[in-house]
Design goal:
A 7-stranded mixed sheet has the order 2-1-3-4-5-7-6, sandwiched between helices. α3 links the parallel β4 and β5 (113-118). It has one domain (3-229): Rossmann fold. The protein is an alpha/beta fold and 230 residues long. The protein contains 7 helices and 7 strands, in the order βαββαβαβααββαα. Helices cover 30% and strands 16% of the residues.
Amino acid sequence: MAAYHNENDPYAAEWLENLIREQIIPHGVVDRRSIADVRPSDLKGFTQCHFFAGIGGWPIALRVAHWPDDRPVWTGSCPCQPYSEAGQRKGKDDPRHLWPAWFRLIAELRPDLIFGEQVPEAIKLGWLDEMASDLEGCDYAVGTAVLSACLVEARQERERLWFVASANGFTPKWPSKPWMECDSWPAEPNLPRVAHGIPEQPFFRRAYGNAIIPKAGAEFIIAASCALTN
């Protein structure tokens, strides 16, 4: 049993390797190549595969949700820059639109279950339509939800489009959750420094900014798991 983590940002990749050493995320390997260079044969033998792995948000979320390390799953958070309000919003014309590269691997190896997320602004620019159409064309059932991080008491709104795809089919009937409203919180908290006396580096902020909030991911994983079994 081993996990595969794909992340081409050197700082985030080193962070992942530290998390593996500390046993915070499952034992495995960190592949620092671009996902465009990953071939299906590279993924053979891995129980879990995490793409655009960042600083390990998805494997941490799975553990928070009590997902066994030896239970197969794929996860991924495609780059949000082509769709985020903070970027130029070029959508599919942005070279960082990497859903097609991930879907190429999905279509070839057909994992049973996939979790992913994206910024909700991507819905208006066609990312959700493309993702769902591709997966449904390969006979996956797809369920989605837009959830805010403040629903798990994070001090920021941080809405995200979450999705689950199952090769075995399901009817996405989400269990009752307080997902419709939440209190307003400050947009961003102060991030802790790397260590006392060391200034916050841009790459440190970028790592946090691109990461999912594991507790929010865990809530979606739990709800999706209920939907898959009901």
